[in-house]
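With this grant's support, we have settled on a layout for protein records. A representative record follows, to show the layout.
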Amino acid sequence: MKSVVVFGLGQFGRSLALSLSKAGADVMAVDKNEEVVAAVAPSVTYAAAADLSNADAISGLGINNMDIAVVALASNLAASILCVVISKELGIPYVIAKASGERMGVILKKIGADRIIYPESEMGERTARVLMSNDFLEYFDIDDNLCIVEMKPRKEWVGKSLKQLNLREKYRINVAAVKSHNEMRSSIDPNKPLKENSDLLIVTERENLKNLSKNMK
């Protein structure tokens, strides 16, 4: 189970925290607004009200054992900088920061953020899906039921063909295309062994993703 701290519970941060929690992650949600924190608290592992522009307040949250930190404070550059820097100082291995524009993104990247996102409000769930598996590269909803996931093949899949793996029966997923050398091909030879550097474009029902993620850990 992955542990994630989400700094900032605006529309994006709240959506992300709730989606991660539903997907089975251990989520700490933090915001300075006590009412917002209280509203989210029943749906996450732990919720805390803290002044994210105060270094001591951030350090005192006990986040040093978290796997991922998400800084969703695009409207507050100073607080975003503090959260990124302190998260890295405390040893959190992967820090994602939301930026309101390219200039802010450059600054956050320079001070240690591993990934910068410029999300629309509806992207919280998509980001949650990507974070829940080390193998998921991208996630897109097609409708309320179907989705597309781009992912790396698992180690045990490499060297085996799609026919051998029988992914449709085992995971209820359909490989729609395979990308190799930055070129996506929908014409797939089911007898051709998968390569480690290939990306798979998979179409599946959303309810199947949780089992797929569990089997990847």
User: Anything to note?
Assistant: The domain at 3-131 is CATH 3.40.50.720 (Rossmann fold).
